[in-house]
Design goal:
Layout: H1 2-25, H2 35-42, H3 46-58, E1 62-65, E2 68-71, H4 80-88, H5 94-115, H6 118-131, H7 138-154, H8 159-174, H9 182-202, H10 205-225
Antiparallel strand pairs: 1-2
C-alpha cells in the first residue's frame, strides 16, 4: 500500500513539472520529448511518465497520437480567451483586469512565501538574473516578467492560481502599450522583484506582501501615465 501511495505522489510531481514545461516553454502543436527522454529528464521509470501523460491528456493539455505526444490547441486558450473577450467586447475594462491582477497576486504571495522550496527560490533568482540584461528587447522583458510572477504563484503549489495569474498577465499586457518606457519598467521591476525574492529567502511574508503591493501599484500608475 505504501508503495502505491509513493508511486502516485511521484506521478503527480512529474505531472506538475510537465504541465509547467508545457504552459511556460511550449506552444500548441509542439511535440513533447519521447517517454524515454522524459524518464531520463525526471529520473523516473517510463511507467511513471505514462501515468503522468495520461493525467495531462485527461485535462486536455496534450494529445497523444501514433507519431508522438503533442501540446493540445486548447492549452493556451482555456483561461486567456474568455478574459480577452471581455475586454474586446467592452464588457470589462482594462483597469478591472489590472485590479484583478492586484487582488490575485497580493492575496497569494503570503502562501507562496510560506510554501516555497529552495528550488522555487533558485528559479526566481535565475529569472531575475536574466531580467537584468541591459540588451533585453521589450517582448523579452515582458516574457521574463510573466515567468517570474508565474514562479511566485507556482511556489504556492496551486496550479490553478498559477494559470489564472498567467492568463490575467497575458491579457493585460496584450491590451496595454507595453512597448513604451521599457527601461523605466525594467529598472523598477528588477528592484522590486529583488526585494520580493529576498523576502522569500527570509520567509518574511509581511515584507513580500508589502513589496508586491507597492510593485503592482507602480505598474498601475505607470500605465495611467501612458
Amino acid at each position: 500500500m505504501e508503495t502505491k501511495n509513493k508511486k502516485e505522489t511521484l506521478s503527480d510531481t512529474v505531472s506538475r513539472k510537465l504541465e509547467d514545461m508545457i504552459t511556460t516553454q511550449m506552444k500548441a502543436g509542439d511535440r513533447l520529448p519521447t517517454e524515454m527522454v522524459l524518464a531520463e529528464m525526471y529520473s523516473v521509470g517510463r511507467s511513471t511518465i505514462r501515468e503522468s501523460l495520461k493525467a495531462l491528456s485527461s485535462k486536455g493539455l496534450i494529445v497523444r497520437k501514433k507519431d508522438g505526444t503533442f501540446v493540445s490547441d486548447r492549452v493556451k486558450d482555456c483561461l486567456i480567451a474568455p478574459l480577452d473577450l471581455l475586454i474586446t467586447m467592452d464588457i470589462g475594462q482594462i483597469n478591472d483586469l489590472i485590479e484583478l491582477r492586484e487582488m490575485l497576486e497580493v492575496s497569494m504571495i503570503a502562501a507562496a512565501v510560506e510554501r516555497a522550496t529552495d528550488e522555487d527560490i533558485k528559479n526566481m533568482e535565475r529569472i531575475l538574473w536574466k531580467m537584468q540584461n541591459p540588451d533585453l528587447q521589450a517582448d523579452e522583458s515582458r516574457e521574463l516578467d510573466i515567468q517570474l510572477h508565474c514562479a511566485f504563484a507556482e511556489a504556492t503549489g496551486n496550479t490553478i492560481i498559477k494559470e489564472l495569474i498567467k492568463a490575467v498577465q497575458l491579457v493585460t499586457v496584450k491590451n496595454l502599450d507595453y512597448m513604451s518606457n521599457v527601461t523605466l519598467k525594467r529598472d523598477n521591476a528588477v528592484s522590486s522583484h529583488s526585494q520580493i525574492i529576498e523576502a522569500f529567502k527570509n520567509r518574511d511574508k509581511e515584507k513580500a506582501l508589502e513589496t508586491m503591493r507597492v510593485h503592482l501599484s507602480i505598474f498601475r500608475n505607470q500605465e495611467k501615465e501612458q
